[in-house]
Design a protein that fits this description.
This protein has about 425 residues and is α/β, with parallel strands linked by helices.
Length: about 425
């Protein structure tokens, strides 16, 4: 199927073509016609599936075709993070540049006055984080009474971040008659409850089941003593000549410490998390995308929704507490048909976090020891360490036999799974 067959305006087709996209992704092929019909949508899609274009293109077309002009926003997009809001806003501007529609983005961490000026000049599309949007509502600098389309992007993360009450407050400010689009990577009971209250006779659009993204990425676990993680990561970066990698830590302080350690070792790195100013976060992300920094160290919340083209490696410096967050993390690589590697540096005390991840994936992750970085005796004496001595996929040996050692001068095991030692290239899908 081509974009032409989806019923999009010539102006939109031109912008899509200019972005280098020829064939719609599955989520775009399913969602665009339904949204154009005016139906409510419950969409399920992982990062990197082209989800943003799936709602941006038809929304731009619908707003343009009505011909109605209003000083107040006619479409409201709510996102969980500042970075995602900025990316959605950029997509709206890029795809809609040939249409007479105005859009802007509002989020916290930056001055509110420039946002007020843009809102007063009038807009058609408003992309916002819930907290800053409610600030504007409280100051009466935005009027939501003309909203025709409401979009909740990455709704599951908004609920995880405690935005449910803010979302409900925003919904009360909207007209009762409107089109509603809810996109979520997972369907918890809370998400289903929100969908039941928000959506009217919705069309279910779902692609890429929750563990599908993980199946597209080569994955490996490196057992390592907790105190040696930073050293091992630096070795992998240097030996493999990595040019771009996203590294996840569990805490903000951990992200800061790791970025500082890498910088002192001559590896360009920066950390992004909730305690960083928006200016610092934007600068770090920009320098990373431009190749000025090799390593971006992030917490899960700060990295949610990041759209980074051609990302060869994702590293779990700390395993996430929630198994599904692992899938979200590694979904940043191996996108749009490009290859990718997900590396997890796992200490003995993290074994309890690895098991549910493997249950979610439905398979074991390959375990590779690296010479000189095997876990120390104290780790080995712990009961949890026995779980590392297991059969790796494709190997005919007892589950509790000794893991293979990597060969001399190598940073991984067999050649099939040591690709992370060199940078890879590829193109990212529509966002």
């Amino acid at each position: 199927m081509s974009f032409e067959k989806l019923g999009l305006l010539p102006a939109l087709l031109e912008t899509v073509k200019a972005q280098g996209y020829k064939i719609p992704t599955p989520i775009q092929a399913q969602a665009i016609p339904v949204i154009l019909e005016g139906r409510d949508v419950l969409g399920g899609a992982q990062t990197g599936t082209g989800k943003t274009a799936a709602f941006a293109l038809p929304v731009l077309q619908k707003l343009n075709e009505t011909g109605r002009r209003s000083k107040h926003p006619r479409c409201l997009v709510l996102t969980p993070t500042r970075e995602l809001a900025a990316q959605v806003g950029e997509s709206m501007a890029v795809y809609g540049r040939k249409l007479p529609l105005r859009s802007t983005v509002v989020f916290g961490g930056v001055g509110i006055n420039p946002q007020i000026d843009k809102l007063r000049r009038g807009i058609d599309i408003l992309v916002a984080t819930p907290g800053r949007l409610l600030d504007h509502c409280g100051q009466r600098t935005v009027d939501l009474s003309q909203v025709e389309i409401l979009i909740l992007d990455e709704a599951d993360r908004m609920l995880d971040m405690g935005f449910i009450h803010d979302i409900k407050r925003v919904i009360k400010l909207l007209p009762g008659e409107r089109q509603n689009l809810l996109f979520s990577a997972t369907y918890s009971n809370d998400i289903r409850g929100l969908a039941d209250k928000l959506l009217r006779d919705p069309v279910m659009v779902e692609v890429d089941p929750r563990n599908k993204a993980a199946e597209k990425v080569d994955q490996v676990v490196h057992p390592v003593a907790l105190k040696e993680k930073k050293v091992l990561l630096a070795k992998l970066i240097n030996d493999g000549d990595w040019q771009k990698a996203l590294v996840f830590t569990r805490t903000k302080h951990g992200a800061n410490r790791l970025a500082t350690y890498l910088e002192k070792g001559g590896i360009g790195a920066a950390a992004i998390h909730g305690n960083k100013s928006q200016t610092a976060r934007t600068r770090a992300l920009s320098e990373f995308k431009q190749g000025k920094l090799k390593i971006l160290v992030a917490t899960d919340i700060a990295a949610r929704g990041l759209d980074i083209a051609a990302l060869p490696q994702v590293v779990n410096f700390d395993l996430p507490n929630v198994a599904e967050d692992y899938v979200h993390r590694i979904g940043r690589t191996g996108r749009a048909g490009s290859s990718g590697m997900a590396i997890s540096l796992v200490s003995a005390d993290e074994q309890k976090l690895l098991r549910p991840i493997e249950r979610l994936l439905g398979r074991d992750i390959l375990v590779e020891n690296i010479d000189g970085f095997e876990q120390n005796q104290a780790d080995k004496d712990e009961e949890t360490f026995v779980n590392f001595n297991r059969r790796s996929p494709g190997q005919k040996r007892g589950r509790y036999s000794k893991p293979r050692q990597s060969g001399a001068g190598r940073t991984g095991g067999n050649s099939r799974n040591s690709n992370h030692s060199r940078a890879r290239s590829g193109s990212a899908g529509n966002r």
